[in-house]
Amino acid sequence: MTETPTPDDDSTIRTDDYFEQEYHVSAAEAGEFLSAVGECLQAGDDVSLSGDGWELEFAYRDAVELEVEHVGGDDPELELELELSAAGGDDSPPSLG
């Protein structure tokens, strides 16, 4: 189970079929988390995440969507997004424990 970093504020959004938690962490903490998720993906294992009072187990299809976005200018930003679709083509949301 990959443990998420500790959130520094109350930024959790949770409904019956939607969950979102935002983290503001150091680059080292983010790298540690991403490496742990990457190890799951490389091994072909389900992605298992846990945080403060929640757990999420997600079986995904092998093909994933990876998006890299860069914005330049006065306030440059790099955004990396990984999107996993549910295994088996099922559109039902993952179980939030």
List the helices and strands and how they pair.
Layout: E1 2-3, E2 12-15, E3 18-21, H1 27-43, E4 47-51, E5 54-58, E6 65-71, E7 77-83
Parallel strand pairs: 1-4
Antiparallel strand pairs: 2-3, 4-5, 6-7
List the defining traits of the structure above.
three-stranded mixed beta sheet, two-stranded antiparallel sheet, alpha+beta, 97 residues, 7 strands
Provide a quick synopsis of the model.
Helix content is 18%, strand content 35%. With 97 residues, the protein is an alpha+beta fold.
Description:
This protein is α+β, with helices and mostly antiparallel strands and 97 residues long. The chain has one domain. Helix content is 18%, strand content 35%. The chain has one helix at 27-43, and strands spanning 2-3, 12-15, 18-21, 47-51, 54-58, 65-71, 77-83. The chain has a three-stranded mixed β-sheet. The chain has a two-stranded antiparallel sheet with strand order 2-3. The longest helix is centred in the middle third of the chain and has 17 residues, at 27-43. It is globular. The two termini are 13 Å apart.
Q: How many individual helices? A: 1
- Whole-number total of structural domains: 1
Please report the distance between the alpha carbons of the first and last residues.
Answer: 13 Å
Morphology: globular
- What's the total count of β strands? 7
Give the biggest beta sheet.
3 strands, mixed
Low-confidence stretches: none
Q: Topology as H/E string?
A: EEEHEEEE
Spatially, the strands of the biggest sheet line up as 1-4-5
- Rounded mean pLDDT score: 82
- What percent of residues are in strands? 35-45%
Provide the helix percentage.
10-25%
